[in-house]
Amino acid sequence: MMFNSNGKPDNPPLNVRLKVLVIDDETNFTEEIEEFLQNQGYISFTANNVHKGRSILKKHDIDLLILDIRLKGVSGLDILKEVKLIYPKLEVIIVSAHGDMDSVITALRNGAIDYLKKPFRHTDIQIAIQRTQRFLDLQRVIKNLEQRNSLISKNLQDKIKRDFIGESKQIKEILEMALTASKYKDTSVLITGESGTGKENIARIIHYESSRKDNVFCAVNSSAITDSLLESEFFGHKKGSFTGAISDKRGFFEVSDQGTLFLDEIADMPINLQAKILRAIEEKTITRVGDTEPIATDFRIIAATNHDIDKLIEEKRFRLDLLHRLNTIHIHIPPLRERIEDIEPLLRHFVTDFAWKLNKPIPRIEKETIENLKNYSFPGNIRELRNMIERALILCKNESLSASDFLTKSSIGAESQKEKINFNLEENESDIIRMALKAQNYNQKKTAEVLGITRDSLIRRMKKYGIHVSKSDNSKS
């Protein structure tokens, strides 16, 4: 068994708890494996006969099957074929006490993802499961991208447009331009603006108002992918093309077929990849890493950046020809400080939204609060305003939202009205998370729902800010 530095079993990745079924006619073996899996944090099921195994597969959404190749009265190879036929997405690890390599090869050809020979150490099965989990995680990413549109209801589409609200002339012109761009499903769009201005929201409006709305909107943060994985992530790869390529993989261009590929932070893309991206956009064909067969794919490109691209071109960090290909339509979103008339409608929208999420009455907004916000420069733009309002609503103890609810430690002693709301994004995000955890009795799942983020994202932020909960608190999650 694998242990961490505290002498406790290592847990699997927190984003997904694998459901593992073990089918083996040796009771001692299944009991031992079940104890090990439970100690490792997996959800485990066991069956000492095929009938029970089939029943478990029908009732539960199993991720991984550990299957003995030789069972009483039936061949594990036959069960493997049956399982892969009925549950094609289910991964299978074959185990055997016999050195029958012909059977092992047959099992792998019939869809088994791995093989272990009995007796094996707990570390061997742990490594095999972790290897499988990485593959399943990749499959889930692709599946989520492909199914995202099916999860988009009319209400959510309306919410996308509703969240990008304002009364300024600039915002009305931006929305009009976005709706115009949506009518031309193949036209590339470049959206520029400071961080937090709502560039992805505009990209989503263009997609969901276009004829591509019934297909995937694939959002990719170009700066969040390591250089070594960039080509594989965008173009996909062929099984065996490099170490770790255990199956064929579709990249972002293929996943976005008939839909929209949103390239956020496009200016952060390495210069050596930009030429390949340009060629894919122009030819609408790609070739997977390790393959020679071109694949046609029909996607629309919407790109966004908060950088000065003209400056990057002068510094030879961005290709001019790629810029020309991307900005057939250019939409620039001005910062919030240049359209202060949008602050009040955004304020009222977010106050209502967070009051509902936090199960609190909608407070009145004092006139002084609105004026103070209008005098603040908002370096973090709408995202900063949104976070400020969430924190203020959590702190608010009265029926009205006052300027004091927005004050932070760093604003104490501020002399000017403009400095009263001195907002530190990270400081406030940390405070918000701590208060939300306490309000939800340290239940991480409920806290993530209240904050409007995934549990994974909450855990990453807790690690970032050094937020720890006790064992008793953790048990509530």
Please, could you describe this protein's structure?
By secondary structure, the protein is α/β, with parallel strands linked by helices. It folds into three domains: 19-146, Response regulator (Rossmann fold), CATH 3.40.50.2300; 152-334, Rossmann fold (3-Layer(aba) Sandwich); 338-474, Helicase, Ruva Protein, domain 3, CATH 1.10.8.60. The chain contains 20 helices and 16 strands. It has helices at residues 27-39, 50-59, 76-86, 101-109, 122-151, 154-163, 169-182, 199-208, 227-235, 252-255, 271-283, 309-314, 320-326, 343-357, 367-374, 381-395, 425-439, 444-451, 455-464, 471-474; strands at 19-23, 43-47, 64-68, 70-71, 74-75, 91-96, 114-117, 189-192, 217-221, 260-264, 285-286, 295-296, 300-305, 329-332, 364-365, 400-401. The strands form five sheets. It has a five-stranded parallel beta sheet, with helices on both faces. A five-stranded parallel beta sheet has the order 9-10-13-8-14. Helix 7 crosses helix 8. The longest helix is centred in the N-terminal third of the chain and has 30 residues, at 122-151. The chain is globular and about 80 Å long. The two termini are 25 Å apart. Mean pLDDT is 81; it is low at 1-15, 149-153 and 408-425.
